[in-house]
Amino acid sequence: MSITLNKPAHAMPPALVRHDWTRVDIAALIALPFAELIFRAQTIHRAHFNPQEVQISTLLSIKTGGCPEDCAYCPQSAGFETGVDASKLMAVDAVLAEARAAKETGAQRFCMGAAWRSPKDHDLDQVCAMIEGVKAMGLETCVTLGMLRAEQAARLKQAGLDYYNHNLDTSPEFYGQVITTRVYQDRLDTLDHVRNAGINVCCGGIIGMGEGADDRAGLLAALANLPEHPQSVPINALVAVEGTPLGATEKLDPIDFVRIIAAARITMPASFIRLSAGRESFSDEAQALCFMAGANSIFYGPRLLTTKNAEATRDEALFSKLGIVKLHSAAL
Q: Cα torsion at 132, 306, 172, 154 (round to 10°)?
């Protein structure tokens, strides 16, 4: 399943897609002098994409809180006191109303997230009805529902799902310091089920959870060495939420974040690299550097599940300053 690229007339020859990146390779990229790193990333970006286009997604929490997992960054865990109340799965009509509003504001993809360890089959039926309804509006569909079995992935594909989000979060070595209720292989197994069902993979991670430079390189190596690069790679900056174990974590240096965006672009040249959680805390200048480093997708709208996102008016103003336009079609 390929993505049709709208490349500018001056596009460079496409970069070689590799699946043999080592941590040493990636660590060396991240540590390059900043101007050289940005130049390499921008050159590769232009070989695969129009550098003025950014893909727009909107994210809705369709079932919030009460999650049995212990992800140390997540305010939706039932084990943390964060002020997030558990809710039931939203009604299909309510979700479709949100999707219509998202389309009217320029979203191309509508993403739905449920705070589950894994979905129950009866809940999956309702989610599939949401997917079918959103798809009928002409929007791309994406869900994140936790771990999946092979037959569940097949059911989502039958409903018309375009993308499934399931992040690796961090490196295999640092993972156990963030999450203990599932292992890394559980995540890889779900990604296998999604790929085998013919659904596009949305998979990335979180930067700024206290991991070291080697762990950041390790995350990108794990992503870039998957059997197929994720079609969409969300890179999140930790949003430190009071009440979670990572609530007092020191704020991430934006330049360090830009370096990860650039390294992701170089190692996964044909993937959409998305600025995700934490973007609202970055200055316009830091976000501009991210776009220069190869980011070409954002979440649009005031909230990301339970955390704040940049206001749409601010995004529109920034796009105008930078000459960025919204991508209208990313044909599957």
A: -10
Please report, as a single letter, which amino acid is at residue 153.
Answer: A
Whole-angstrom distance, CA of residue 262 vs CA of residue 8: 20
Which phi and psi (to 5°) does residue 157 adopt? Answer: -60, -40
Residue 296 Cα distances to 145, 276, 304, angstroms: 24, 11, 18
Task: Please give the structure tokens belonging to residue 198.
Answer: 């013919």
Mean pLDDT is lowest, of 145-154, 164-173, 276-285, for: 276-285
Q: Please write the tens of the pLDDT for every residue from 25-48.
A: 999 999 999 999 999 999 999 999
Active site residues: 67, 71, 74, 111, 142, 202, 274
User: Alpha helices, DSSP H only, in the chain?
Assistant: 23-30, 34-48, 92-104, 121-136, 150-158, 172-175, 184-196, 213-224, 254-267, 284-292, 312-322
The whole-angstrom separation of Cα 184 and Cα 169 is 9
Segment 193-238, tens digit of pLDDT? 999 999 999 999 999 999 999 999 999 999 999 999 999 999 999 9
Check whether 8 has a pLDDT greater than 80.
Answer: no
Contact present, 230 and 218 (Cβ < 8 Å): no
- How far is Cα 308 from Cα 282, in angstroms, rounded to an integer? 12
- Residue 304 clears pLDDT 60, i.e. is over it: no
How many residues belong to the chain? 332
**DSSP result, 199-232:** PEEE--EEE-SS--HHHHHHHHHHHHTSSS--SE
